[in-house]
Structure formats: structure tokens, C-alpha cells
Task: inverse folding
């Protein structure tokens, strides 16, 4: 059986790109962030990740069919040395654990061929004392719980950890990351790549716009072209929440048909 592959429009140049990944997270933070970036960085759909073992489904938004794991690209201002553009990889699908390593390997092999310069994993963790909503795939972290929305970072190498410190994002001291984000971080560490994960505290009971806004504000350090006033950003994130919730309600997957309990849409 053919394995996973990243299929990008042949006309698109991907050299010197910062790759941002947005896979399912607590409070749908990654999805809210992804849709915000697509709109405000004017990213264009360029392809996605294909694997015959993924559920055969298509999300539809405003009449447009969308594959489960898709890619967008654009050329916003980027502060990382050598970065000329941004590529966003996103999904509302909880990638089955059995496929995560294969898909991540394909993504990293593609990134090596395409001369990707750095990566950022968007993630979230449940507020202290709350149960998350990813059927066992949610991260478990130990952090200092403050009155505000807390944020932590993970760096795959010394350079990325230094970048997080320069962004005033405290490094996660103790925790367990699961699912495809764990595979991304582990493989990046093995390869010694400039990749970081930015994780925000979120309410798992509903799409958390304020958590997403906090994370986007921290991304301003890497992508200053998305620098927006705080309140309008929250208002727009809340509007995106409603769109995402509507899309998710119309896409229910029977996991028993796929044979994989984690093959589902979240939200």
C-alpha cells in the first residue's frame, strides 16, 4: 500500500518557508488560529497530505470542498532569518495514532527537499482542573497557573528554545505531548531542526477564542504582519468559532466504520 505523501501545486515555490502546523487542539485553538492566519495573511490553498488510510471525507465550507489535511501558502513579513514565506498545514481531523509517525515522516522528508527553514506547532492544553476533549490525545502539562491565559513553549533545538525565550514564552518544564504533535516534536529533535511548539491554556468545553487570540498575539513576534488590536482580534476569532462549529456539526464520522477510534473530527 502506498504511504502518505505531501502533494503541493507544482507551480508553487516553497523554498525558505516557515511551516506552521495546526492539528486538533484543546478548545479548537489550532483551528481558530489556522483560519485567522489564512484570512489575514492572505494564504492560498496549494494542496495537502494524502494517505489512503485516512478517512474518505471532504469538508465543505462556503461551497468549497476541503481535504482533511490541507496546505496553504503566502508571503507575509517574517522575522526568522532566511524566511521568505509561510506554509500552513492544518486539519480538523484527529490523525489516527497508527498513522501519525508515517505522516510526520512524509512531512519532514518533503520539508527537507523543499528547503524549509523553520517550523511552529500550534497547540493548546486544558485549564487546570478541567478534562480535555481529544479522546486521550490531549497534552498533559505542568505549568504555573496564573489569573491570565498562560502560554508555554517547547523547542526542538537550542536555537528554537532561545527564540522562545526572546519571545518571553516560558519553556515547558514538565509534560507529556501526544498524537501527531508529539511525533512532529520528536522527529524535529532527532533531526536537530529549528522547530518550536507554542501552547496556550484553553477552556476545553467550547471553542476558546481568547486563548487563540493570546497565541496569535505571540505569533506577532514571528509574523509582524498579523499585528492587530486585541479586541478586534477577539471579535473576529469569535466569528470564526461560529463558522467552525457549524462546519463541525455537519461532519460527523462513524469511527466504527473506519475501524479507528481516533479517526474523527473534533469540536
Result:
Amino acid at each position: 500500500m502506498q504511504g502518505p505523501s505531501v502533494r503541493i501545486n507544482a507551480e508553487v515555490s516553497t523554498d525558505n518557508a516557515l511551516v506552521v502546523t495546526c492539528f486538533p487542539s484543546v478548545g479548537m485553538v489550532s483551528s481558530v488560529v489556522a483560519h485567522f492566519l489564512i484570512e489575514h495573511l492572505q494564504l492560498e490553498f496549494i494542496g495537502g497530505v494524502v494517505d489512503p488510510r485516512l478517512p474518505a471525507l471532504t469538508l465543505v465550507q462556503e461551497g468549497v470542498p476541503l481535504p482533511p489535511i490541507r496546505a496553504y501558502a503566502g508571503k507575509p513579513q517574517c522575522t526568522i532569518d532566511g524566511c521568505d514565506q509561510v506554509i500552513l498545514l492544518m486539519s480538523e481531523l484527529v490523525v489516527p495514532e497508527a498513522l501519525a509517525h508515517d505522516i510526520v515522516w512524509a512531512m519532514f522528508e518533503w520539508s527537507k527537499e523543499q528547503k524549509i527553514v523553520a517550523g511552529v506547532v500550534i497547540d493548546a492544553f486544558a485549564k487546570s482542573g478541567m478534562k480535555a476533549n481529544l479522546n486521550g490525545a490531549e497534552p498533559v502539562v505542568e505549568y504555573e497557573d496564573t489569573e491570565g491565559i498562560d502560554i508555554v513553549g517547547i523547542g526542538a533545538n537550542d536555537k528554537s528554545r532561545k527564540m522562545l525565550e526572546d519571545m518571553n514564552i516560558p519553556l515547558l518544564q514538565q509534560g507529556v505531548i501526544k498524537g501527531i504533535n508529539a511525533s512532529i516534536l520528536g522527529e524535529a529533535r532527532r533531526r536537530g531542526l529549528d522547530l518550536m511548539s507554542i501552547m496556550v491554556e484553553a477552556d476545553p468545553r467550547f471553542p476558546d477564542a481568547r486563548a487563540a487570540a493570546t497565541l496569535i498575539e505571540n505569533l506577532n513576534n514571528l509574523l509582524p504582519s498579523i499585528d492587530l488590536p486585541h479586541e478586534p482580534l477577539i471579535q473576529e476569532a469569535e466569528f470564526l468559532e461560529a463558522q467552525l462549529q457549524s462546519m463541525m456539526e455537519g461532519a460527523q464520522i462513524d469511527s466504527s466504520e473506519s475501524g479507528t477510534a481516533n479517526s474523527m473530527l473534533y469540536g
About this structure: Residues 253-264 have pLDDT under 50 and may be disordered.
